[in-house]
Amino acid sequence: MSQQPAEQTPAGHEDALARLDGIDDVPLSDRVEVFQAIHDELSARLSSAEN
Q1: Coil/strand/helix, residue 3
Q2: Domain spans of the chain, in order of start
Q3: Do residues 13 and 45 touch, judged by C-beta distance below 8 A?
Q4: Model confidence pLDDT, tens digit, residues 4-33
Q5: In angstroms, rounded to a whole number, what is the distance separating the alpha carbons of residues 23 and 45?
Q6: In the structure, what pLDDT confidence band is assigned to residue 49 with cuts at 50, 70 and 90?
Q7: Please, what is the end-to-end C-alpha distance for the chain in angstroms?
Q8: Which of 2, 8, 23, 37 is most exposed by smallest CB count within 10 Å?
Q9: Pick from 51, 45, 36: which is nearest to 14 by CA?
Q10: pLDDT at 45
Q11: Can you give the pLDDT at residue 2?
């Protein structure tokens, strides 16, 4: 999975995407929770941006 370069990443999303930096160190069984948390955060930001 590739990330966009920082200059193309939408503002405010860096924190959520930064959580992926250490994903290789997270046990496979715990990755779903990390992905879900990132998804929830990005969805909330998108929802608030649309309103």
Answers
A1: coil
A2: 6-50
A3: yes
A4: 554 555 556 788 888 899 899 999 999 999
A5: 22
A6: confident
A7: 29
A8: 2
A9: 45
A10: 86
A11: 53
Write out the DSSP string of 10-47. Answer: PTT-HHHHHTTTTGGGS-HHHHHHHHHHHHHHHHHHHH
Rounded to whole angstroms, the maximal C-alpha distance in the chain is: 37
CA angle 28, 35, 51 (to 5 degrees): 175
Half-sphere exposure of 3 (CA within 13 A, CB side): 14
